């Protein structure tokens, strides 16, 4: 089981973030054997398909260079001409083959892991120059597996090559008794089939290497439980930090709310557990009274203290206070069902303010403030 540098076991599969980070760094599951197998098999098929063209080009080049005039041997220009003609003579068959091999090489490289561009592997790293780390890599499990794979490939390819040579040995020896044109065509045919058989052996190695590379890549990217927790904290935020942020946000909202209390026209209380502060601005085109602040217990007491300090009327109406508290958010208008009741209350408050301002007679007790049954809160 994979272990971290501190000895903790990596038991958790890589997260999507770690996989994404690894991809950005160019760390993907790749199989060199798959790329090699794809390249050689495509090359073998391409050579087999263009074998007749290749044979014709080779015959023409050989015939052109085997018959050279004596005077040409002493003329540099003529020898350069022979070289140029020889290159051009095989270009028709080799250019197509090279193009197919280039495409096969690209496809084989990205067949496993997909297409990915990253400058990270090219960046110089001092850790790569550490001789101790280099020795550890030389004797690591990965190096041992690569060594065994190399030995297996050599043994397998040599075994198949030996079998193919035995199969075609008689035909190879018989080439000496054939004409030049026929020997070239027959020899190229033997080479093509031998190349095809040897290339096909790499499919077996690739079939073993691909699952191993996928498993090895997943093992290298595994995470410890602590790494999973740390990553979650980075993405979602530390719960303690988030708690402090929420607390600071609540405190800021509380300060803003308490700063609006002096603007209220009336404060309605439970009388001890709930307090709500209402404002009705007739000059601003306000449709209905708006809830400026609300709170229970300590906050309710604080709202009443601010109201008393600014001489805002504080009216006790438990049913109305609970109804507004539970059915209205700060900054919203009160429910339509409470319009009539609050209008009666505001009319009483207006009379109360007038009596205080002009030392007139007290308007008397608060009128009955009825709350519709659907807005009552009995919790």
TrEMBL record:
* Membrane-topology descriptor: Multi-pass membrane protein
> Which UniProt keywords are present, listed alphabetically?
Bacterial flagellum biogenesis, Bacterial flagellum protein export, Cell membrane, Cell projection, Cilium, Flagellum, Membrane, Protein transport, Transmembrane, Transmembrane helix, Transport
Q: Can you say where in the cell this protein is located? A: Cell membrane
Give a yes or no for keyword Cell membrane in this entry. yes
Question: What transmembrane ranges does the database entry give?
Answer: 34-56, 95-119, 147-170, 190-215
Q: What does this protein do?
A: Required for formation of the rod structure in the basal body of the flagellar apparatus. Together with FliI and FliH, may constitute the export apparatus of flagellin.
- Record-stated family: Belongs to the type III secretion exporter family.
Name of the protein: Flagellar biosynthetic protein FlhB
- Organism for this UniProt entry: Marinomonas phaeophyticola
């Amino acid at each position: 089981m994979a272990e971290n540098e501190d000895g903790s076991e990596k038991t958790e599969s890589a997260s999507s973030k770690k996989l994404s980070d690894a991809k950005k760094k160019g760390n993907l599951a790749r199989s060199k054997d798959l790329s090699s197998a794809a390249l050689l098999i495509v090359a073998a098929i391409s050579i087999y398909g263009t074998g007749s063209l290749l044979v014709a080009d080779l015959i023409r080049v050989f015939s052109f260079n085997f018959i050279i005039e004596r005077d040409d041997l002493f003329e540099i220009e003529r020898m350069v001409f022979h070289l140029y003609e020889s290159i051009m003579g095989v270009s028709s068959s080799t250019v197509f083959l090279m193009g197919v091999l280039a495409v096969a090489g690209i496809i084989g490289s990205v067949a496993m892991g997909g297409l990915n561009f990253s400058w990270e592997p090219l960046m110089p790293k001092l850790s790569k120059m550490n001789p101790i780390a280099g020795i550890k890599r030389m004797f690591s499990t990965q190096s041992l597996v690569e060594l065994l794979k190399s030995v297996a490939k050599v043994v397998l390819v040599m075994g198949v090559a030996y079998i193919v040579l035995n199969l075609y040995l008689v035909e190879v020896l018989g080439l000496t008794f054939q004409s030049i044109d026929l020997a070239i065509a027959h020899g190229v045919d033997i080479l093509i089939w031998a190349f095809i058989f040897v290339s096909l052996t790499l499919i077996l190695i690739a079939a073993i290497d691909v699952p191993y590379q996928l498993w090895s890549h997943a093992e290298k990217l595994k995470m410890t439980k602590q790494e999973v927790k740390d990553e979650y904290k980075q993405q979602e935020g530390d719960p303690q930090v988030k708690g402090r942020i929420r607390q600071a946000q609540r405190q800021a909202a509380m300060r803003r709310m308490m700063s609006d209390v002096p603007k209220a026209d009336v404060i309605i209380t439970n009388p001890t557990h709930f307090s709500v502060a209402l404002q009705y601005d007739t000059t601003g085109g306000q449709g209905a009274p708006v809830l400026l602040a609300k709170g229970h217990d300590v906050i309710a007491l604080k709202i009443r203290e601010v109201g008393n300090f600014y001489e805002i009327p504080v009216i006790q109406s438990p049913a109305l206070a609970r109804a507004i508290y539970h059915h209205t958010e700060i900054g919203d208008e009160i429910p339509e069902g409470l319009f009539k009741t609050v209008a009666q209350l505001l009319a009483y408050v207006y009379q109360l303010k007038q009596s205080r301002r002009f030392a007139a007679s007290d308007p008397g007790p608060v009128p009955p403030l009825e709350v519709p049954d659907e807005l009552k809160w009995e919790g």
